[in-house]
Amino acid sequence: MSVLFTSISAGNTVSTEDVRSTFAKLNVSVPESEEDDYQKLLAAIHDCADTVAALPDFHASTDLERFPRKNVQRPTLDENVLGHAWAHTFSIKDKQPSGLLTGKTVCLKDCICVAGVPQLLGTDIIDPWIPEADATVVRWALEAGVEIVGTAHCENWCQSTSSFSSAQGIVHNPYAEGYSAGGSTSGAAALVAGGLVDIGIGADQGGSIRVPASLCGCVGLKPTHGLVPYTGIASNDPIDDHAGPLARTVVEVAECLDAISGYDGIDDRSLGAPKHATTSFAADLKSIDSAKGMRVGILTEAFEIALLDKDVKSVVLSAANKFKALGATVEEVSIPMHPMGNAIWTIQQRISGYLALQGQQTGRHGYGLTGLETAKLPWTQEKFDKCFPTTKNIFLNGKYLIDSFPALYPKAQNLCRQLRLAYEKAFEKYDVLITPTTPFVAPKHGALTTPIATIAPTVGLTSNTVQFDATGQPAMTIPIGFLPAKEDDKVKLPVGMQIIGGMWQDGKVLRAGHAWQSAFDWKA
């Protein structure tokens, strides 16, 4: 209060009417006799805000001399691939590349900041905004020797598991035009699975890496929460925010994870992560390339969800049991709380996601994307009208829940911890757990009609993925085979198997996935 007291005056920056109207928004008031005092206090904080607002912003440094941006362009529809998989194409690489990923090409989900490259976020709610600094994962990937060749299309505001929600256009599944590539990391999954880039870096709050990787037929890892710093990535929900790699092989995913993991001194999500460049995920795979002695648990409740296609169930169970041939023990394990994870995550995510949309999330150390917040706020009817139904639903759900169930968010947080402990109890016996990644193969694209009809094709896709965003445990999907499309049995689409590990046990997840992938040809 000392700063405020030194600046309290009868200033005219705010009025007593501002005091009344501000308190009225909180559904409270103060006695008229106290309004002058509160006017002075409000004027003081206004002056303090003016002072801070006038200061130059502080951005992480970006070495444009070492990593120049070349040929930045937004491709036309004729120049694009797989529908609209690219957001922007360009070339960024070290002038003298060296490191674990030298020679690899990388694309980035278009919510990951690249200094000087307009970010679309899959929306026309706001005009493209231009980040001032690279995300940490961008800098670390470049230092590892990659060439970043573009930003990949993502779904509208990163809030859909479809691949037709973006204002910029549709992304097609690389195995069948007209079918979903999943979301919201739609473009990166399609580009990786289609063989157009080696590695994608995406973001996952409810399945946004694993769902598109599963539908497109590539490997996608959501690491332990905080293992990869989220600095410079647009946030939907800090509790659920995960960044991670997609590739065609588990080894490439492990190599990328070595490059982009660790605490960066900025993002407090990563306070528990190891020091950057000290992990050995890829080397460990090469020294122990089998599953011999591993204990694999088939999570019973994950195979009992209502929307699970019987053929997907059969293919995933068959793939899980193949671990026996690799020297692992395979058993069924029941975790009765697993189905409740959907409801727990939904409550936590709707409230936190709503606050993020409103610019009201606080309490974290990190790098603030002030340019994005300035472009986004305030919300207007015109902006709201352009939202995809999933985003409008987050507004509706979040506001309703906050007003109607005031204690529900902290309770959801408590239940997230209980859910994590339930899985961790299973990990005392098992190295990894197995579930289907998605309950069905890629559906056909939906159409923007009524809200429910628009969302309907993707309902249930995250039935087995959201739990591990809520708990923070690592989860990876690997492709294990093909099944016919629901609409056309001549169209063959990938099936994904999800491998989950205990907190900070990403190495076990990678080991199991690599062993399976090394022994079996999923395309056969």
UniProtKB/TrEMBL annotation:
Signal peptide: none annotated. Residues 85-510 form the Amidase domain. It comes from the Eukaryota. SUPFAM superfamilies: Amidase signature (AS) enzymes. GO terms for molecular function: catalytic activity. Pfam families: Amidase. InterPro entries: Amidase, Amidase_dom, AS_sf. This is Amidase domain-containing protein. It comes from Aureobasidium subglaciale (strain EXF-2481).
